[in-house]
Amino acid sequence: MEHKGVSPEECRFLEISRRNTLVEYKMCFKSIGEVQTFLQNDPDINSEVFYEQKSRTATEAFAGAPLEEAIRYCIGGYNQNYDQFLSLAKQLEHVNKKNVKVRKTVTSFVGQRPNVPAYVAGAPKNMYRLEKTEEKKVKRIWMKVTFEKTTSESQIRNRGIIALNLINLLEMNNYMVDFRLFDLSCMESEVFRCEVGLKSPGQMLFPRLCYYPMCGKEFVRRVICRIKESMPFKEAWGLSYGKVVNETITRMVMDIQDDDIYIGSPIEMKIKGDDIYEDTDAFLDKIGIRDKIVIPSYMGQETV
Q1: Distance between CA atoms of 277 and 300, rounded to whole angstroms?
Q2: What is the C-alpha to C-alpha distance for residues 35 and 37, in angstroms, rounded to an integer?
Q3: CB 273 within 8 A of CB 291
Q4: Could you read off the pLDDT of 241-276 as tens digits, one per residue?
Q5: What percent of the chain has pLDDT over 90?
Q6: What secondary structure letter does DSSP report for 4?
């Protein structure tokens, strides 16, 4: 066996294409479960490029649990600091429920519940109903899975919480959300692009399934690395596993539209990792969405 990695003919997730002078290796997973399925089949490793399999040899201090465990985490079992994650998420949810009232209640001839004072007074409009909403629109969110080495766990955690909060806010404002994680890196004339769907439009949001790929260092440093090790690269990816590209190039290569939402690393998104309310306001200011949907200001809110 030549051990040059997988090919598009044998791997349904892989597509190889040319873009001018670049060769693009695109891995597209519709769900985190498909990532697990791919890796559990132990795809061939491109040993001509990856002399050392860092997805296995990286220390636990740097990359977390061993590779086999990191793969199992994809569809459950990753609970590290999850209770704290949920607690902070509920704080933001409490602020949303208290401040965001998108659909107004109006009086009408017909409705969902009676307006008792109006009925007693004999007014013709003696029922309450919710205002009609506009047809739902789709909003796509792209979230970069990688982050700088200096990023703290609290910064990573807060970014994940705020990203899920953004989805809830958009849905409260009559949007359907398409939420995707991605990794984009390059080496000389080759580009690696990996997409993982975490929520499709109209699908219910499952925070637990999102938590691991958003916040677990194993996902970046073992799972994504193991996927790269199976790519039929020609360039010298084995030393650094590629260079992360900036937002401008990312938008161009990934065809991210102007009305899509791009979520960069916690540092890019101005997230400090201390106060969740301060980080949320900074994040929302960074993506410039306050003039498009109804959202609260989080600073000054009492911790619940």
Answers
A1: 8
A2: 5
A3: no
A4: 999 988 999 999 999 999 999 999 999 999 999 999
A5: 74
A6: B
